[in-house]
Structures are given as structure tokens and as C-alpha cells.
Amino acid sequence: MVSGGRGEGAGALLVVGDVITDIVARHRGPLAARTDTVAAIRTLPGGAGANVACWAAHWGGGEVRLLGRVGADAAAWHERELSLCGVRPRLVVDPEAPTGTVICLVDTSAAGERTLVTDSGASLRLTPDDWSDALLDGVTRLHLSGYLLFSAGSRAFVEVALEAARARGVPVSLDPASAGFLVELGVDRFLTLVEGIDVLLPSRDEACLLTGLPDAEDAAAKLSRHVPLVVTKLGADGALVARSGTVSARIPAVPATPTDTTGAGDAFTGAFLATLLTGAEPEDATREGCRAGARAVEAVGARPPATRPPG
Asked: What residues does the Carbohydrate kinase PfkB domain cover (predicted)?
């Protein structure tokens, strides 16, 4: 396994979340209404949960496993791509829904900023029947993609997984995933659903939305009264670490020239979790997250380079 800078640690990371097919369209300037817009278009593996797992495996620190749900249409491809990144995938094949698809519109004239058009497909159809307590065997950390909270079935799945993790003393982290979906779910409902988690990894927009506060530091501090450790991702402004109602560290960003910001937050989360697996402090893990985020924005797509050769 190729590491981004850390050695092997004890125990495994289990990531549960979405596995998605990304259609990345890189265009320059505003989209032209009612006519053609020239773009470079690629089909790539994605999904917040899958991306986090791939970056965690790439960064090193321990074994990384992924549980997700896909359609039969792309199951073999996604399993292969995850394995190439050093992840041990366990993909549930949905008998009805196709694999989720996201169209990523990337404006190359606006620092690689992207707009997502999402069809979640099978990815949000995990249910409690897909869970087994045996999934936690050998696991020292469980990470949940926030997208799981945006459908009834996967919310029930999260409840079962959290209960199992608490029973075994396995710490749980969660990334809220989408400010847009959070608005639909409701802030109070989200905060109730994540009670008992150990680490929350929101973006600036998500942290401000969850608290109603306009300042990211104030928002991070407030959230850390509800969750023991809050790490707020600020993009080009780095990240904040907050505990017990106080921002304890401000970590600067690593300079980068953005090409495509898709998956930068997932890269941060993956490297952060991989570093925690080594026994590092959250501040050091946050620095590694900033390194990974900078590396991610300089490449097209949401995944790191494959770490294992085919075959």
C-alpha cells in the first residue's frame, strides 16, 4: 500500500457510505443555455464514502474496508476500482436500483469549483439487513458518510451501526456530506440523529448551517458542545479543530493550484482518519487532511492514484 506519509497502525477503518459513478464535465465559463457548451468529459468512480476509503488507504495507517450498495450495472467495475486503491470492498448489489450517478460540472475558469447533479440510486438503499456486527471485527474506527442520513432506510441502518459500535467501544466519525441535503433533512433532526458520535467533519458551509452562525470558528466551537471533536474544513483557509466549546487549533492550508475541487473534502477526511489510526493527535491528523485536500484539487476526479497494479 502506498502511503502519503504515515506508517502502518493497529486495527482497521470501516467506512460505510455511497459508491457512485461520477460523470465529470470540465468546461470554461458559464454554461451556454439552449445550445452547446464545450467540455472535457470523463466517467470516473466516486461517491463520498468510497472516496474517503480510497484516500484513507492511499494515506496509509492500517487496513481500510468499505461497505456500500450499488446496482448490478456497475458492481464489478466499482469493486475493481476500490481494490486497486487498496480498499477491501463489501458491496451489496441492489436487485432493483442502478448504481448512483453524479454529474460533476467543473468550471475551469473558477478555480475548479464544481456543481453536482445527483441521482443517489442504490447508494442510499442500505438497510439494517445489510449490517452484521461481524463487520466490526478487527475495526478500531467506524466512519459514516452523512449521505446515509438522507433516506429512511439508511437512517435505520445508521441507528443499528451506531448501537453496535457503542457496544464494542468503537469510535464513530461522520461527515455531514451536503449542505443542500441538510436543509431538506432539517438541522434539529440531523443533530438528533448524530447524537453519540465522536468526531464530526463538516465543511464551513455545513458548520454554519448546523449552528445558524455566520462565522466558521464560532460555528465549530458551538458544534463541539454537542460532539466531542469537531474538525471543520475550510478549503483554501485550512481547517479548525474544536473541543468542549473552544477552537483549540487553526491549521493552515497547503498551497495548491486547483484543477478540480471534486472530492477535496473526502480526501481530507480519508487522510485525517488514516492518521488517527496511527495514534496521532487530531491536530496532526488535521494537517495530513490539509495535505491530502491540496493534492486532491490538483487532479481531475475525486480519487487518489491507484495503489495496486491490476491482477
From this structure: 13-305
